[in-house]
Amino acid sequence: NVEAKWWSDFVFEPDYKPMTLPELEVFIKANKHLPNIPSEKEMIDSGINVADMQALQLQKIEELTLYIIAQQKQIEEQKLQLDMQQKQLEILIKQLGVVLPNK
């Protein structure tokens, strides 16, 4: 049994703002590890606290889940916009009297 002193559910609080994906990319390129996760050197030199590492890993999973949800919403919005544009295009084509070949 490993005792945890903190947990990562704060990720789901309304005021929690994860890094943007571009910010995350810059951090990873510069540091070669995820934010708040110890580097390889830190782990080798100091070891790891299993409970803290488990909580940090769960935090990253929860952040990934938030990114996926945000991307899904964006995809759905883009699909609606694309459908609307397709309908507008069809109306314009009809107004111009242009006949498109069958698909």
Q: Tags for this entry?
A:
0% strand; 63% helix; mainly alpha; 103 residues
Short description:
The chain is mostly helical.
- Total domain units: 1
Distance between the termini: 62 Å
Beta strands, count: 0
Helical residues, percent: 55-70%
Number of helices: 3
Radius of gyration: 23 Å
Characterise the protein shown here.
This protein has three helices and no strands. It is mainly alpha-helical. The chain has one domain. The mean pLDDT is about 95.
Strand and helix map with partners:
Layout lengths: L20 H11 L8 H7 L3 H47 L7
